[in-house]
TrEMBL record:
Pfam families: CarbopepD_reg_2 (PF13715), Plug (PF07715), TonB_dep_Rec_b-barrel (PF00593). PANTHER family: HEMOGLOBIN AND HEMOGLOBIN-HAPTOGLOBIN-BINDING PROTEIN 1-RELATED, TONB-DEPENDENT OUTER MEMBRANE RECEPTOR. It is a multi-pass membrane protein. This is Iron complex outermembrane recepter protein. It is found in: Cell outer membrane. It comes from Parapedobacter indicus.
């Protein structure tokens, strides 16, 4: 209670400061668009810096940018830089809100492409695109990819205990979301609720979220949206540069060390390289009251990239390896039906666990290798061509407690190999029209490694997917329109033996047409309106079709349905936004209908007892479903250095066939942030801030009684605090950060946590971060 009282005094003190301060004049905005001086096409991903001040951003997928909270009677300097273009420096006297058009001229390297700057994967779409701010990334650095994106409205997490999380976009997760990892579609065993994306967030510098059905541009499975992670462009400068990040986390006594080196090569003009690595280690985590047994983590990652630029062509090569070994909460593997019912009723472990770094069974071990080769060419008229090949190998092993000292033998051992070939061509701009056509080919082979002495959860299978698409864009100064169409064909051939040694599986063929139509309109400098309606589809996964066994990592017994058909999703998103002076408002309103929606339904009262324990039974079913919701973001500058932010997400999802609520849909949540920029700028320190945050998660009342093993947990409040500063060490910056999550050490449960039946959420955690760039 003393900490809560202190927090209240801080909030009141900042509010009083705002009330007695002199009226702020730092409420002006500079907004505009960056275009190619030759083609007049908008340029996305251009880095823009403004001084005085520390604001830095990148132009969006349509070339737009906005600097806010600027002071009057000040001359500001805007610097725009992008690979292949000469830097542009513009001075702007601010006496009112200003609107600019920045025209970049080509440098000695000819790059006319507007959708790929530095030949990264960027986005130009009528759907809303949200970027995770650099400061918010820093505040959760060292955590998972899901933690980073959950800072955006409309994104939550599907958790398995306190250590495994995957992102949820407007109620969609797993195979309904496409994740692009450095331009390659991430392909692992993502069908599992506890199979987190095998991506090291330290590799990426840009984290973007596309809301809406993106089936045309990205193919099957993009029903719920697209997550894009991209590294910074490789340098042209031949001087060695890099960064070093180190983090300590008190909860789990975890440590993270990540480093990167990069450079151009003076002896080979146009050649550049980068190497990167991350090591992470933590032990048993703690709730507010107790340690959660066997929740340690070990992770080791590495990556390397090469780029060679020659006249109008760019060649890229990339490789990464992700390795993780993590424990699964021991209390989720229970002996008898009576025991599991007693644990669910208690809602917490019966055992007392000590702190340890040891990781025992049950546990996961995953190795994910990714390789990429890419060729890009710009023609002198402004068109561009891309051909990209990717190969991934995902080796997943899941271990359980076994008799006879065989714990070292995995219960589940699968290798998934995926090869992709993508090609597309974009025409030059003709009379404000531009066309993009392309194809995507994917070949997957999944094999269960023999020798586990256990019946595999899913069968061996081969899968081939081929798609053709075309997108037509009309680009005007104040508005853009986009129409797209796509055709996909998928062949799925599976074969396996069940626990009775009966052969099952077979060949299934799926095909579908996807489409989208949308636009972006700027009726005035302060307003922007995006609207898009899209059709996307998804074929059922191997586990949804054929699983009939114990999923060890999730501590569930899953039963599939071989007769499931494809999902077809129709999603309409409308996104108005307003920004003027001290106020910024963003809305994302969406309505989605999914025909033949597939979901895992808990089977109350049904438990399956094996020699390894007793487990809840989940059955895959299919229905028609609707998703209606709104994501809201509001920012207001109280005074020169104090900003308030509110993010809210509301979703309503129903099984309209049976007129009931769908299970495992995120409950309504509200996030408040109050940020104070401290006036401590000097030659040594800059950008010093303190942020206080509050998250309010409501109880999920849209729930059908008797359809789960335990009712949804009550609402909860989580308070957090963040602080950071940039120090000058010679000519190089050192960023120092500190965060306190769950400030008051609340004991709570999250409805979207699959282990909420047995344990609570993460207790107080203090993180200290150092980031040095050179």
């Amino acid at each position: 209670m003393q900490l809560k009282t202190l927090f209240t005094f801080i909030i009141v003190g900042l509010s009083l400061t705002a009330g007695y301060a002199q009226t702020s004049t730092c409420t002006f905005t500079i907004r505009g668009r960056v275009v190619d001086s030759d083609t007049q096409l908008p340029l996305s991903g251009v880095t823009l810096k403004i001084s005085p001040g520390t604001q830095q951003l990148r132009s969006d997928g349509h070339g737009y940018f906005r600097f806010s909270q600027l002071c009057g009677d000040v001359y500001y300097t805007i610097t725009a830089t992008s690979v292949g273009f000469d830097s542009l420096v513009t001075e702007v006297p601010v006496e009112k809100d200003e609107t600019l058009t920045l025209k970049l001229h080509h440098g000695h390297i000819l790059l006319h492409d507007v959708n790929v700057v530095g030949h990264q994967q960027t986005v130009s779409t009528a759907n809303p695109v949200r970027t995770v701010a650099r400061e918010q990334v820093a505040q959760v650095q060292g955590k998972t990819l899901a933690d980073i994106f959950s800072t955006l409205p409309g994104v939550s997490m599907l958790q398995t205990g306190t250590t495994i999380a995957k992102p949820v976009i407007n109620g969609m997760h797993s195979n309904r979301i496409v994740i692009l990892n450095n331009g390659i579609r991430q392909e692992g065993q993502q069908w599992g609720s506890e199979h987190a994306p095998e991506i090291d967030p330290f590799v990426a510098k840009d984290f973007k979220l596309v809301k809406g059905a993106e089936g045309v541009r990205y193919g099957a499975d993009a029903i719920g949206g697209v997550i894009i992670t991209a590294p910074a462009p490789l340098p042209i400068d031949p001087h060695l540069s890099g960064e070093l990040n180190t983090i300590y986390q008190t909860n789990g006594r975890g440590g993270v060390l990540s480093g990167m080196l990069q450079s151009g090569v003076k002896a080979i003009p146009g050649f550049a390289w980068r190497v990167q690595g991350t090591a992470k280690r933590s032990g048993n985590v703690r709730t507010a009251d107790y340690y959660v047994g066997n929740t340690g983590l070990a992770e080791y990652n590495a990556s390397g990239a090469l780029r060679y630029t020659h006249t109008q062509s760019v060649f890229e090569a990339y490789y990464s390896r992700f390795y993780t070994s993590l424990g699964i909460f021991t209390g989720a593997h229970v002996g008898t039906v009576d025991d599991i019912q007693a644990r669910v009723e208690a809602g917490r472990p019966f055992e007392t666990y000590p702190f340890t770094y040891d990781i025992g069974a049950p546990r996961q071990r995953v190795i994910h290798d990714l390789g990429k080769l890419k060729w890009h060419r710009d023609d002198v008229r402004g068109g561009s061509s891309d051909i990209q090949y990717g190969i991934q190998r995902n080796h997943r092993q899941e271990y359980d407690i076994r008799r006879g000292g065989r714990d070292a033998l995995p219960m589940l051992d699968m290798v998934l190999t995926t090869q992709t070939l993508d090609a597309n061509y974009q025409t030059p701009l003709y009379a404000n029209w531009r066309t993009q056509v392309g194809t995507n080919l994917t070949l997957q082979v999944n094999n269960n490694v023999p020798g586990t002495l256990n019946t595999p959860l899913i069968p061996n299978y081969d899968s081939f997917t081929g798609g053709l698409f075309a997108i037509q864009r009309l680009i005007r100064e104040r508005h853009e329109w986009e129409l797209g169409i796509r055709y996909d064909f998928k062949n799925f051939d599976a074969a396996g033996f069940d626990k009775y040694q009966h052969l099952y599986g077979g060949r299934r063929d799926f095909h579908n047409v996807s489409g989208s139509f949308g636009g972006v309109w700027h009726p005035a400098a302060e307003w922007q309106l995006r609207s898009n309606i899209g059709l996307a589809w998804r074929a059922p996964n191997a586990n949804e079709l054929y699983s009939n066994g114990l999923h060890h990592g999730a501590a569930l017994y899953e039963i599939g349905d071989a007769e499931l058909s494809s999902e077809h999703g129709y999603k309409w998103v409308v996104s108005p936004s307003y920004a003027r002076g001290a106020v910024t408002v963003d809305f994302d309103l969406y309505a989605q209908y999914i025909q033949d929606y597939i979901y895992a339904q808990p089977s109350p009262g049904e438990f399956l007892q094996t020699i390894r324990g007793t487990f809840p039974v989940f059955r895959y079913k299919q229905t028609h479903a609707t998703f209606l919701g709104a994501d809201f973001s509001f920012q207001y500058t109280l005074l020169d250095r104090v900003n308030y932010t509110l993010n809210a997400s509301i979703i309503r999802a129903r099984d309209i066939t049976n007129d009931v609520y769908l299970p495992y849909i995120p409950s309504d949540r509200f996030d408040h942030r109050l940020r104070w920029q401290l006036p401590l700028n000097s030659k040594v320190t800059s950008n010093t801030y303190v942020t206080f945050a509050h998250q309010w998660v409501l109880k999920q009342n849209r729930y059908e009684p008797g359809t789960d093993y335990a009712p949804p947990p009550p609402a909860y409040h989580i308070f957090s605090a963040y602080a950071g500063s940039q120090l000058a060490l010679g000519n190089h910056p050192l960023e120092v950060g500190m965060s306190i999550n769950n400030l008051f050490n609340e004991l709570y449960k999250e409805y979207m946590n699959r282990f909420r039946y047995y344990s609570h959420g993460l207790g107080r955690e203090i993180s200290i971060r150092l980031s040095y760039s050179f």
